[in-house]
Write a structure and sequence with these properties.
Layout: H1 2-11, E1 20-22, E2 28-31, E3 40-47, E4 53-60, E5 63-64, E6 68-69, E7 74-79, E8 86-93, E9 97-104, E10 109-113, E11 118-122, E12 130-139, E13 142-151
Antiparallel strand pairs: 1-13, 2-12, 3-4, 3-7, 4-5, 4-6, 8-9, 8-11, 9-10, 12-13
C-alpha cells in the first residue's frame, strides 16, 4: 500500500517541476545551460519550408548558445533590448513544434512559424520571473517537444561609486 501511494504521488502532474509541450516521444533530449552572468538577450528559431521548427537557440549577453534541434530551415531572430525579458509564450504543435509567440515585459512580441495544431500558453508561476532556459526533444525532422525554465532576472552588477576626490589635472 505504501509503495502504491508513493508511486501515485511521484507520477501525479503536481510533482513534475517542468512541463514539456508537444508530442515528445522517442528522440534526443536537449536542455540549455543556465548562464549565471547574463540574462537571455535573444532567441533564434529555424523553420523548415513545410512549417516545422528545425532548431532553436538562445542568446545570453552577446553570445549565442549551441543549436538545439537539427540543421536546416530558414532562421529568424528576435533581439531583446536592455532590461527586456521574455515573460510569456504562446505556441502550437502537431507532431512537431510549428508556432511560437514570445512576449516581453516591454510589451513587444515576436512570432515564429504559423499557428497550426494544439495550442499552449506558458508563463511563470510567480510575478517577476523571466525565461532563463529551454529543454525539449528532437527527432529526425525537428523539435517534437519544448519546455521552458523560469527564474528571476540576474541582479544588476554593483558599480564602484565614483571617487570623492576630483582630479584637477588635464589629461592629454
Amino acid at each position: 500500500m505504501l509503495l502504491w501511494l508513493t508511486l501515485t504521488i511521484l507520477w501525479s502532474t503536481n510533482c513534475w517541476a517542468d512541463q514539456m509541450y508537444g508530442n515528445g516521444g522517442s528522440g534526443r533530449y536537449f536542455s540549455s545551460s543556465i548562464d549565471n552572468q547574463n540574462d537571455i538577450s535573444g532567441i533564434r528559431v529555424s523553420v523548415s519550408p513545410i512549417g516545422i521548427f528545425r532548431s532553436i537557440q538562445l542568446r545570453y549577453g552577446s553570445a549565442w548558445s549551441r543549436i538545439y534541434g537539427v540543421s536546416g530551415g530558414s532562421a529568424q531572430e528576435f533581439i531583446l533590448q536592455p532590461d527586456e525579458y521574455i515573460i510569456g509564450l504562446v505556441g502550437s504543435h502537431r507532431i512537431y513544434l510549428r508556432y511560437l509567440v514570445v512576449y516581453t515585459n516591454l510589451g513587444r512580441q515576436a512570432t515564429f512559424g504559423q499557428d497550426s495544431g494544439r495550442s499552449f500558453i506558458v508563463y511563470p508561476d510567480e510575478p517577476g520571473m523571466v525565461l532563463t532556459g529551454l529543454f525539449g526533444q528532437t527527432q529526425l525532422l525537428g523539435i517534437t517537444g519544448i519546455g521552458f525554465k523560469w527564474d528571476y532576472p540576474l541582479a544588476e552588477p554593483e558599480t564602484t561609486p565614483p571617487s570623492t576626490t576630483q582630479n584637477t589635472e588635464a589629461t592629454p
